[in-house]
Amino acid sequence: MVMTSDRIEKLRKLLDADPGDTFCLYALAQEYAKRGEQDEAIAWFDHVIAVEPGHAYAHFHKARSLESLGRKDDAREVLQRGLKAASAGADPKAAHELEEYLQSLGD
Predict the structure, then answer these.
(1) Where do the domains of the chain lie?
(2) pTM here?
């Protein structure tokens, strides 16, 4: 079994070769989220969104990290931006998932 830190190290090496690789950026964010390092995960999700603003699942998982930190209002804002991005990018599946998550957060 590959340890999370090994995966992070490998992803960072890949990212050194191509700093704009959204796959690596997203994977790093996910690895940090798995480790419970939500602030670090949020920062990496922000990198993904900066490179690819329409990356709906970066918005989705950033919102999850924010919610886990008790930042529900921030999570709602991120989900709303992600919903706009998914709708603009014609990704109905992502839009539906973002909408459901947004509704689950309530008011």
Answers:
(1) 4-105
(2) 0.89
